[in-house]
Specification:
By secondary structure, the protein is α/β, with parallel strands linked by helices. The protein has one domain: TIM Barrel. 38% of the residues lie in helices and 14% in strands. It contains nine helices and eight strands. An eight-stranded parallel beta sheet has the order 1-2-3-4-5-6-7-8. Strand 3, helix 3 and strand 4 form a beta-alpha-beta unit. Helix 5 runs parallel beside helix 6. The radius of gyration is 17 Å and the shape is globular.
């Protein structure tokens, strides 16, 4: 089996977040230095690597860092943070863009051009939607659905991956509002994919697989918050062979238009 992790985080300098540095943010750059280390340390063959979305970081610097990292390991693919000029990063090799709710980009007309550039280029937007500080489950998940509608009204052909299957960190445990959100997304937006990054509970994973066709689910760990090996074991405990192939490998290879060689090699 080939494993593609679609949701790695990387930071070029941990000291930049010195005031918010639990042990998971300690240096792990060695994991990304070569394909053998990727497989040995993280149990995957390929990875989509994106900067941490901390506000204090400079997006330009962090985007350059993941582009540089990918240039030195062909089994990594760079995902840049959304800014006002995504075309620049696409020309440099970005295969997708990550948008976090910190930015709340849709609230600003300044970023409508960014979405249109991404849509026109056929590049994916990986979005973590929600409203920071909103702890009410019902309104939180209603806001996620509303923002997906905003995206599709603005850019109908925009290719979207909903990070963490919409399951925000404050609501990791199953609840009806989140379950209803997934059903609504599945019924309304047949072209939206979800990644299951950060969902380290087997019942959460099973619910995503029950709602969506296997062809619309991407494997991702949300490393370093969760480890790929742990999530692979959870998924393999209940997926059939067709689902494994689609979720672990084929969906990402097709959706991100990845050029990949022999698993675990650097060519």
């Amino acid at each position: 089996m080939i494993y593609i992790d679609t949701h790695f985080h990387y930071i070029s300098d941990v000291e930049k977040i010195a005031n918010d540095k639990p042990s998971i943010f300690l240096d792990f750059s060695g994991y990304f230095m070569n394909p053998a280390a990727l497989k040995e340390n993280l149990s995957v063959d390929y990875g989509m690597v994106m900067p941490f979305p901390f506000r204090e970081l400079q997006s330009d610097e962090e985007n350059e860092s993941v582009l540089d990292l990918a240039s030195r390991n062909s089994n990594l693919f760079p995902v840049c943070l959304l800014d006002r000029n995504p075309e620049c990063w696409i020309l440099k090799g970005a295969v997708a863009f990550k948008e976090h709710f910190y930015g709340m980009r849709l609230a600003s007309n300044d970023y409508q051009g960014s979405y249109r550039q991404i849509e026109q280029a056929g590049v994916l937007l990986i979005t973590h939607l929600g409203s920071k500080g909103n702890t009410d489950k019902e309104t939180f998940y209603e806001a996620i659905f509303a923002r997906l509608c905003d995206y599709k009204n603005l850019c109908p052909e925009l290719k979207i991956v909903l990070a963490h299957a919409g399951c925000d960190f404050r609501h990791k445990f199953r609840n009806k509002s989140w379950e209803d959100l997934l059903v609504r997304i599945n019924e309304m937006f047949s072209d939206i994919h979800v990644d299951i990054s950060g969902l380290t509970d087997v019942e959460l994973l099973k619910h995503v697989v029950r709602v969506f066709a296997a062809e619309r689910i991407l494997f991702g760990s949300d490393f370093p918050y969760a480890r790929p090996k742990q999530m692979i074991a959870l998924l393999e405990s209940f997926l059939d062979e067709f689902q494994k192939e689609r979720i672990f490998y084929r969906n990402a290879a097709k959706l991100f238009n990845l050029s990949i060689g022999k698993p675990g090699s650097d060519n």
